[in-house]
Design brief:
This protein is mainly alpha-helical. It folds into three domains: 1-80, no CATH class; 85-175, no CATH class; 186-252. The protein is 69% helix and 6% strand. It has helices at 5-29, 54-80, 83-92, 97-126, 136-167, 186-208, 226-252; strands spanning 36-44, 48-53.
Length: 253
Amino acid sequence: MARSIKKITPFLKLALFLGFFIFLFNIILNNEGQTVLAILPLNIPLFGHIYITIEVIIYSLIAISQLLLVIIAFSLINALINPDELMKTFLKMKMPYLMTFLVTSSLRFFPLLMKDLDQISDVQKSRGLEIDKGNIYSRIKNRIKIILPLLANSLERSIQVSEALESRGFGLKKKRTYYKHLTISKLDALIIFFLLFFFGLLICFRFIGYGYYQIFPKFTTISISITDIFLILFIIISNIIFLLLLKLRSKMI
């Protein structure tokens, strides 16, 4: 709905790449579960034979889904929210300025890091470096030739930021003044209250026992009761109301 699919696509590719290794390592190192699908003819020291179970596969898929959700959330924050506005929001919540500055700086530098990575890759390709060809060992070796310039560029940027902060007297006075102050309207307060109330209800439902799924030692079949259906409808309706409030707030800006 925010029309930012292209902006978060590189982050999704990174998440899928990490998800592949999560799935692979869980299959190799995790032999828990009672529903065995296959036994690979490999004997790893300290681990023994590799057992592929349905429980490990389900656990790996859940872990990958959680990773995707976290990366999508933070990539949308980078794509949609200005770091300056995010910093003002944290300051409005009475958070320490130094911690707020560190958080917003890290969010600002991550897209720059990805942009530098693309530029360095293009430069190395123009010099004849084959990054995406060859076996796995050659690809890893060629990727190292990209990481080293990226690390040097990141260190140089950090030095520039520290010099800029020092020249502006960062941290000289404890009490700071601001050029612009963030104001919260009644609709903003309603959205915040609705969001906190919604998450509070979800946490209460979780402590009651809803949303629990047993994987180990043997996975349980999913059974949906009438209460679960009402809970799912409540979540869907709450999200629709929340999106309508956000849409109304965007028209007021």
